[in-house]
Amino acid sequence: MFHMSIYESQGLTLNNVTISAPDNSPNTDGVHITRSSDIRIINSQVATGDDCISIGEGSSNVNIMGVSCGPGHGISVGSLGKNKGERDVSLITVTNCTLTDTTNGVRIKTFASPVSLTAYDLTFQHIIINNVKNPIIINQRYCPQGCSRVRFFFFISESNLVFINSSGCRTLGSRAILG
């Protein structure tokens, strides 16, 4: 369930939006973007029990700027590759965002599946993390409900990933990058 779903949209700007849900509320993505282009989310606050912002398949030219996220699961590209017919994700920029008390910072999550698609030209810059368990995650075997029956793993191609001038602190015992 999403608080806000942007689907097959072009040229949309969300400015100064506030979304709030309890941190223990499952499946409550703040904003989910799918099959959309030229989307901007700026100067907004998102607190949820799931992804603050998630960018799904078929999305391109998405700019997330000045967003404050937390609590929640951070800002995610994905999940990708679960269903046949999914489209590439490209030209995603996340800049000047602050993530506080989140499970994840920025995350790319893809299913290990036979779906062929690419996530490319993803830029994360000037990200500040505060008390984040997993600051950066690239998970190519995302499987939230157990995928033990998967016999063949095909990985979604990820190219031109850029992380620039990001800083902050993670929680004790956390991992920086999972891949």
Helix and strand arrangement:
Elements lengths: L1 E6 L2 E6 L2 E3 L8 E6 L2 E6 L2 E3 L5 E3 L4 E6 L2 E2 L5 E6 L8 E7 L2 E3 L3 E7 L7 E8 L2 E5 L1 E6 L17 E8 L2 E4 L9
InterPro entries: Glyco_hydro_28 (IPR000743), PbH1 (IPR006626), Pectin_lyas_fold (IPR012334), Pectin_lyase_fold/virulence (IPR011050)
Keywords: Cell wall, Cell wall biogenesis/degradation, Glycosidase, Hydrolase, Secreted
Organism: Phtheirospermum japonicum
Anisotropy-based shape: globular
The major β-sheet equals: 6 strands, parallel
Beta-sheet strand percentage?
A: over 45%
Radius of gyration over all CA atoms, rounded = 15 Å
- The domain tally reads 1
User: How confident overall, as mean pLDDT?
Assistant: 85
Query: What structural category characterises the helix and strand content?
Result: mainly beta
String of helices and strands: EEEEEEEEEEEEEEEEEE
**How many DSSP helices?**
0
Q: What is the strand arrangement across the widest sheet?
A: 1-4-7-10-13-16
Between the first and last Cα atoms, what is the distance in angstroms?
A: 27 Å
Flag low-confidence runs. Answer: 150-155
Annotated CATH homologous superfamily: Single-stranded right-handed beta-helix, Pectin lyase-like
Name of the CATH class: Mainly Beta
CATH architect. name: 3 Solenoid
Helix content: under 10%
At the fold tier of CATH, the topology name is: Pectate Lyase C-like
Question: Total strand count, please?
Answer: 18
